[in-house]
C-alpha cells in the first residue's frame, strides 16, 4: 500500500487506509504499508502489522501538501515499490502523482494496482484560484489516466462514482464500496471533554471547497444571544489562516482554533458538543462529497449541522441526522439556535444505530479488501 498519510496521522484518509489493511490482513493477506514518518509522535500508533516509514517534507501545519511535499514522497516511493522483494498487488491513495508512480511501478513489476478514489483531485484543483492552466490540465490527465489503467478504482459514494464516470467513462473496474467512520473509536460511550459551556465542533480540514467561513457568519449572530456558546475548530488546511484573520478583524468572541487531535480526543469533544459542523462551498463542483466529519459526529450520538447543497445535505435531511441547511448564514444560525435550545434534536441512540448500519468503516473496508484480492491472479 502506497499512501502519504497513515495512522496515527489524524486525517480521514489515514483511517480509511488502516481499515483496509486490517481487512486485508483478516482475509489472510500480508500487507506492507509504504508511508511517511508521522508529524507528531504520541501514544496512538497504527494497528497494521508492517508499516515502512520514510521522512517527508510537510508544510507549516504538518500536512503533506503541495508539489514539493508530494515529490518528497513520490520519488522515494518509486524505488521503494521497485525494490520490494515480492509484490502481488499495489493499493495507492491520492494525490494523482502517487497514482502515476504506482502505475509505472505496477507495469514494470507486472502486477495489478487498485486506486482509492475518495476524492476527485482535479476538481479540487479547479476550485483553487491561481493554479496555472497547464497544471490543472496535467492533474486532470494524470488522474484520469490512473483511473483508466487501474485493475480496480474504489469510490466512496454514488456521487464520486458518477463524477469518475463523467470524466473517464463507465468502467467495470469502478467499484463503489462506500465510506464510514471507525465505530469502535467514535462511540456515544466513553470520556467526554472537560470543555465548559455549550459548544459546536468543526473537526477536519478547512479549504476553499469546504467553505467553513459560513459558520463564523452564523455564529457571530448566535453569540449575541448566547454569550456562553463556543465554536471550536480542530482543523488544518489552506483556509485556516483566513478564518483566524476573520475572527480577529471582526472581533467574534468565543471562537477557538486548535490543532488536529487524535481520534479518541475528537470523539470525546463530539460527545459533549451540541452539534458537529460540516459544509460544502456551492458552485465548486464538490456537491457530491460526503465529509467523514458527518459520520464522526453521528457515531458519537451527536447531530450535525450541514451547510450546502448536494449529497451530504440530502443524507442528513433524509435520515434525520440533524439540520440540513442551504449555504446561508441565516439558516445555519437558525440551526445553531435550535441545537442550543434542544429543539428537534435527533436522539443519540437513533444517530448511533443509523451510523452502525450505514457508515461503518470496517464494513466498507471489508468490501474494499474483497475487490483488491479479486485483482490477484492466485
From TrEMBL:
It holds the Pfam family Glyco_trans_4_4. The keyword ATP-binding does not apply. The keyword Glycosyltransferase applies. One of its GO terms (biological process) is carbohydrate derivative biosynthetic process. One of its GO terms (molecular function) is hexosyltransferase activity. InterPro entries: Glyco_trans_4-like_N, Glycosyltransferase_grp1. Residues 18-180 form the Glycosyltransferase subfamily 4-like N-terminal domain. Keywords: Glycosyltransferase, Transferase. PANTHER family: SULFOQUINOVOSYL TRANSFERASE SQD2. This is D-inositol 3-phosphate glycosyltransferase. It comes from Brachybacterium phenoliresistens.
